[in-house]
């Protein structure tokens, strides 16, 4: 079972993901961008470079995803583990879909989904921590080019399109609630996801 946490920067994914370690000690906790590979290092260089080419950045994130899948996600799923990933392919569809909005690529989100279709493993469930772009930017501290409210508004619109296309995969959680309430709601959602599995 592959469960992913998605949402804007500052929506509280990492806070929730860390708290879940105690609740599900046997699960495999992982994240994108990865923090234990040179692919992840390359992605982090692109995130920190305001002049990085958006298309090149897409392919760096996608390379990191390919490595993450073959090295971590697929082996864990083959062992029957529950995998909980802080960000995954939907982040690419939503963020790089927004970054490439004014590029030569006509329908960037569909293009990115097309690239992934041949090799990715779609999550079984995705918990979407929903927060408005202004709160997201303020919480994240606006430390990189992705953490700006106007950009995050486009990213949020892309997440909404993804949810509309696959409503059965997504569980929306109001992430403007206090952290303990967000965590309670995520825990209840996960319990029901795992019970139904
Ligand atoms: N529900 C909440 N209410 C208020 N503040 C929160 C809430 N959840 C997290 N925060 C705070 O917001 C900041 C960002 O949280 P966190 O790192 O968990 O978000 P994130 O979604 O993982 O962000 P990013 O994608 O940028 O890594 C932290 O300072 C955290 O303490
Ligand atoms: C996986 C992924 C991430 N991003 C962006 C989102 C954030 O601004 C940064 C780093 O993520 P973190 O959760 O704050 O560590 O990268 C992206 O644009 N595309 C992706 O596929």
From TrEMBL:
Which EC number(s) are documented for this chain? 2.7.4.9
Segments forming domain Thymidylate kinase-like: 5-185
Write out the coiled-coil annotation as residue ranges.
none
Which GO MF term does the entry hold, naming one?
dTMP kinase activity
Task: Check the record and name the SUPFAM superfamilies matching this protein.
Answer: P-loop containing nucleoside triphosphate hydrolases
**Residues bound to ATP:** 7-14
* EC top class named in words: transferase
UniProt similarity note = Belongs to the thymidylate kinase family.
Q: What is this protein called?
A: Probable thymidylate kinase
């Amino acid at each position: 079972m592959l469960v992913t946490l998605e949402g804007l920067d500052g929506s509280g994914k990492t806070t929730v993901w860390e708290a879940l370690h105690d609740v599900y000690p046997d699960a495999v906790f992982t994240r994108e961008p990865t923090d234990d590979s040179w692919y992840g290092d390359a992605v982090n260089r692109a995130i920190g470079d305001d002049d990085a080419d958006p298309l090149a950045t897409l392919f760096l994130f996608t390379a990191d995803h390919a490595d993450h899948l073959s090295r971590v996600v697929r082996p864990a799923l083959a062992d029957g583990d529950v995998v909980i990933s802080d960000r995954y392919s939907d982040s690419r569809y939503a963020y790089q879909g927004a970054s490439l909005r004014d590029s030569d690529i006509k329908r960037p989100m569909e293009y990115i989904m097309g690239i992934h279709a041949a090799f990715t493993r779609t999550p079984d469930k995705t918990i979407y921590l929903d927060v408005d772009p202004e709160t997201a930017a303020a919480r994240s501290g606006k430390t990189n080019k992705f953490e700006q409210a106007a950009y995050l508004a486009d990213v949020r619109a892309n997440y909404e399109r993804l949810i509309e296309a696959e409503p059965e995969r997504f569980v929306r959680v109001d992430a403007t609630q206090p952290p303990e309430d967000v965590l309670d709601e995520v825990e209840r959602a996960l319990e029901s996801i795992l019970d139904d599995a």
